[in-house]
């Protein structure tokens, strides 16, 4: 069979994952068809596994709204005011206090102990916490368990974002992030239907229906967490050790491919200086601000959409649970399409702008039209725009960051600001604003507009610096430590 030569690595030292030297045969021994099969094998083992785990993560994080209208609010008296907000809002928000604080260490820990141990352990542990939430008898205990849940889930999302970014080139990652998050969106779509089914267990073994939502979903999480130990794979430099997932030569092909694209596949020894000095880069905070704006809207929908459908649009409890599904299914289609287009045409900013325009069209329709059916159409546009912008923003930052520890810091910062967006999303739709929730809608519109402004400013900066690099005046993203020729994607 004819071999197609692929020049994978020119300026980076060639070493195997075990540290030995290699020759050029690593670069040309695989045909194009064989290369595609290797990458698809990575997709099946990595993207599919972390995507399924993210399904469970998102479902476990946001099933409060389903349990709320299934009787939890009444039984635990969550509608009672506490410190100017309802107890329900307190229970929602305390999760994010620990979720934000414990995220930066997670990208360091996953490098030290490996993804299989780290991710499977925390997933199994938070499944146990979910089961415990099904047995609480007061809102204080529920809030305490949500704090613990925040500690455990803090290590998941930034670790997955970082892990995925180490395996793929800059213009492969958009589709993969989209698939990863699509699975989460499908979980959100199915969560309401699943919750409605579990509600039917009301009275079984003496437990209310809302308790069964936590108990059954927690048990499912524990089962998947245990299974994930055998399904997850390590970083590319250790992939050949993960249950014969890849041979050492196949792993070296992946490493060379990433190095040729951006020159940072080789793992670096941990340095606190390198890790925290990344915070001096203003772009990182720009990505974080975009992610904050996006998650404010997406979390607001996740926590309050069933409530809005019930109170604002007049649907029954059962219908409100089930009508959550179609908008998220539509979001999955938009998400993958925009991810594919972004990779194909090597653009990121226009994708983010398009998603935000969907929100800016959908939010006013959702909030102000007289017809419930038309307002429900607005939910489709808003849900699609907000959720599609999550993987789009992850791809945006992944394309424009270089260096292992800078990438780790950026992933943690990005998701940390996403957690702050979760706090904002949990506050924007206040009980006293029911049933129209206009202040919350204004807040979501403002964050969408701010995303457009921030993206425009970053684009101007990227164009300016790329032109300076083309003229030979500067090298971008520490090119002295990697290969030259890096350019920002806008």
UniProtKB/TrEMBL annotation:
It is found in: Membrane. Gene3D superfamilies: MFS general substrate transporter like domains (1.20.1250.20). Keywords: Membrane, Transmembrane, Transmembrane helix, Transport. Residues 46-468 form the Major facilitator superfamily (MFS) profile domain. It is a multi-pass membrane protein. It comes from Amniculicola lignicola CBS 123094. It comes from the Eukaryota. One of its GO terms (molecular function) is transmembrane transporter activity. Its main location: membrane. This is MFS general substrate transporter. The chain crosses the membrane at residues 46-70, 90-110, 117-137, 143-165, 177-198, 210-232, 284-309, 315-337, 349-368, 374-396, 408-428, 440-463. One of its GO terms (cellular component) is membrane. It holds the Pfam family MFS_1.
């Amino acid at each position: 069979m004819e071999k197609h030569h692929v020049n994978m690595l020119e300026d980076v030292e060639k070493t195997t994952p075990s540290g030995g030297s290699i020759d050029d045969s690593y670069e040309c021994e695989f045909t194009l068809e064989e290369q595609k099969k290797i990458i698809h094998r990575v997709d099946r083992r990595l993207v599919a596994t972390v995507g399924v785990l993210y399904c469970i993560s998102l479902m476990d994080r946001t099933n409060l709204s389903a349990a709320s209208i299934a009787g939890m609010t009444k039984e635990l008296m969550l509608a009672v005011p506490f410190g100017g907000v309802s107890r329900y809002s307190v229970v929602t928000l305390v999760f994010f206090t620990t979720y934000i604080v414990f995220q930066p260490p997670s990208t360091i820990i996953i490098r030290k102990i490996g993804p299989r141990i780290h991710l499977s352990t925390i997933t199994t542990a938070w499944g146990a916490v979910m089961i415990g939430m099904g047995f609480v008898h007061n809102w204080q205990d529920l809030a305490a368990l949500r704090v613990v849940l925040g500690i455990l889930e803090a290590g998941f999302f930034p670790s997955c974002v970082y892990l995925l970014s180490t395996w793929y080139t800059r213009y492969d990652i958009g589709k993969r992030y989209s698939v990863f998050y699509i699975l989460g969106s499908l979980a959100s779509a199915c969560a309401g239907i699943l919750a409605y089914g579990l509600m039917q267990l009301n009275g079984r073994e003496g437990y209310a229906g809302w308790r069964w939502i936590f108990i059954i979903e927690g048990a499912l999480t524990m089962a998947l967490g245990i299974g994930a130990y055998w399904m997850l794979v390590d970083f590319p430099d250790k992939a050949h050790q993960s249950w014969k997932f890849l041979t050492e030569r196949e792993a070296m092909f992946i490493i060379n491919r990433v190095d040729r694209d951006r020159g940072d596949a080789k793992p670096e020894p941990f340095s606190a200086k390198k890790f925290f000095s990344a915070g001096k880069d203003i772009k990182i905070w720009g990505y974080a601000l975009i992610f904050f704006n996006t998650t404010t809207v997406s979390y607001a929908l996740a926590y309050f959409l069933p409530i809005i459908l019930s109170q604002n649009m007049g649907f029954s409890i059962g219908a409100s649970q089930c009508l959550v599904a179609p908008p998220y299914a539509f979001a999955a289609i938009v998400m993958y399409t925009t991810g594919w287009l972004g990779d194909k045409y090597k653009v990121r900013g226009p994708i983010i702008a398009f998603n935000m325009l969907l929100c800016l069209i959908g939010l006013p329709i959702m909030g102000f039209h007289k017809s419930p059916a038309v307002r429900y159409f607005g939910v489709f546009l808003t849900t699609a725009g907000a959720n599609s912008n999550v993987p789009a923003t992850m791809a945006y930052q992944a394309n424009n960051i270089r260096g292992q520890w800078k990438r780790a810091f950026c992933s943690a910062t990005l998701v940390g600001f996403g957690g702050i967006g979760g706090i904002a999303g949990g506050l924007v739709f206040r009980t006293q604003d029911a049933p129209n929730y206009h202040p919350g809608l204004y807040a979501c519109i403002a964050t969408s507009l701010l995303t457009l402004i921030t993206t425009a400013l970053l684009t101007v900066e990227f164009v300016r610096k790329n032109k300076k690099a083309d003229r030979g005046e500067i090298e971008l993203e520490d090119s002295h430590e990697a290969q030259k020729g890096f350019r920002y994607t806008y």
